Amino acid sequence: MDLLPDDALVVRGGLNRPEDIEQKTATHPCGITGVSVESAVGATVDQLVAVIPHGQVGVTTVGKVRQVGGDAVRTSGRSPNHATLTGLTPEQVSY
To answer: What single DSSP character describes residue 84?
Structure first.
């Protein structure tokens, strides 16, 4: 697991309604529970969304996630920029 800086972008594809977030929340093999996102140091939105198969994405920063009590942590996944968004309720994630 790698910690990301506050200014790193975080993107997630889909509608991201609370019920969608609740359904997609899982425990990663490393033990972190949350939802999959894309995030990497210095990556642009275009770079992060390149692997997202959805027509709609949400974008924030790691710092904003931390301000409301969550975190985004680099974890293994389908892409080299995979991360897990953790520590927030489905309502907070969908905001």
So the answer is: E
Exposure b/e, 27-58, CB count within 10 A at least 16 = b: ebeeebebbbbbbbeebeeeebbeebeeeebb
Q: pTM value? A: 0.93
The predicted-structure confidence for 36-68, as pLDDT tens digits, reads as follows 999 999 999 999 999 998 889 999 999 999 999
Share of the chain above pLDDT 90, in %: 87
Residue 67: count of CB within 10 angstroms of its CB? 11
And the tokens for 17? 């309604």
Which has the closest alpha carbon to 60: 5, 3, 8? 8
d(CA 3, CA 15): 26
**Cα–Cα distance for residue pair 10/43, rounded to 1 Å:** 9
Say which residues have a Cβ less than 8 Å from residue 23's Cβ, sequence separation at least 6: none
